[in-house]
Amino acid sequence: MADYNILVVDDEKEIREAIAIYLKNEGLNVITAEDGVEAIEKLNENTIHLIILDVMMPRQDGIQTTLKIREKKNIPIIILSAKSEDMDKIHGLQVGADDYVTKPFNPLELIARVKSQLRRYLTLGMYEGCEKVINLNGLTLDPSAKEVTVNGDPVKLTPIEYKIVELLMTNAGRVFSINEIYERVWNEPGYNAENTVAVHIRKIREKIEIDPKNPRYLKVVWGIGYKIEK
Questions:
Q1: Whose CA, among 22, 24, 151, 215, lies 20 to 30 Å from 176?
Q2: Count of domains forming the chain
């Protein structure tokens, strides 16, 4: 993994250095920044494959930084925060983060999540061996281009959002439970996954549906899960 660059953003030097040690032990290259403003500068100057981003920082916090990053880039973002409440996690996911780790954290868990996100990001579009373009009533998935369009207009999805759409479109008509979606996309057990999946589903609907409250494509099957219509 030595060719992959991880941007670690935290205003506490000790935390940046500690995370860097663990990442370097895994053969990853580490670039650091002490706030969101510096993070954007480093992102523009380097090829970054994943960002570990603290929430509470001076000048520009992690939420604002995530929003700015998502204007142009879809690289994986793991949010770090001392806050553990569900609403804080949901907020981080809503603005475009792919994962959330609460401080204090187990370094081995963080490394496992980094590796998992990198695998998904670097193999984006390879889910279930899908190679052919799929068109479902104007919603189109092109695995070779890693692109989703609605009536020809490109949809800007995060890596996690893309994986969810790809899973549902390559199995159009099949209903997936929340736990199934989480396990297939995050590659982790789907315990307590309802909020996380629901946030991503809502964001996807906002991007692909004309009326997210009355979706044409991404349907809920109450008490069971979600599907994309054939």
A1: 151
A2: 2
